[in-house]
Design brief:
Elements lengths: L1 H23 L11 E2 L7 E5 L2 H6 L11 E11 L2 E2 L8 E6 L5 E7 L7 E2 L4 E8 L2 H4 L9 E2 L5
Parallel strand pairs: 2-3
Antiparallel strand pairs: 1-9, 3-8, 4-7, 5-6, 5-8
Amino acid sequence: MLRAVFELNMMRRWPFYALMGFVLLGCQLTPSPQLKPMGELTKLQLEWADTPQERMRGLMERSHLPENAGMIFVFESAKPQCFWMKNTLIPLSVGFINPQGKLVQIEDMQPQTLDHHCAKEPVLYALEVNQGWFERHQVTLQSQVLQTPPAK
């Protein structure tokens, strides 16, 4: 009898579990094996946005980002990428990272604005964190923050 009740409850809840699975598949929590955070970034719980859909969504609609969390954006090719804060509810800093894994620019961004924050040189990666994180953790320009795959 108890097993029948359990199975009935599971059947009623399968849509919830299926939906949660799709939500959890949204942004990866682990990077490609050839791309590794270095230094202070190893202390962050990182989400990886490496598809166009994940990059477009970014950290939109979130009301909170833990201090030790962030999102790495991985682009297909190196170029001057731009960010904005439409539908983003928390102040963020974006660090632009060149193809060699060095932090080349940091921009502070205000919530729910349409101001463009663009890299001044070609970048292959960007890191969004709570505003001021780079300064609080003494991560400075030209720091090696990612171990990148060998050049082809």
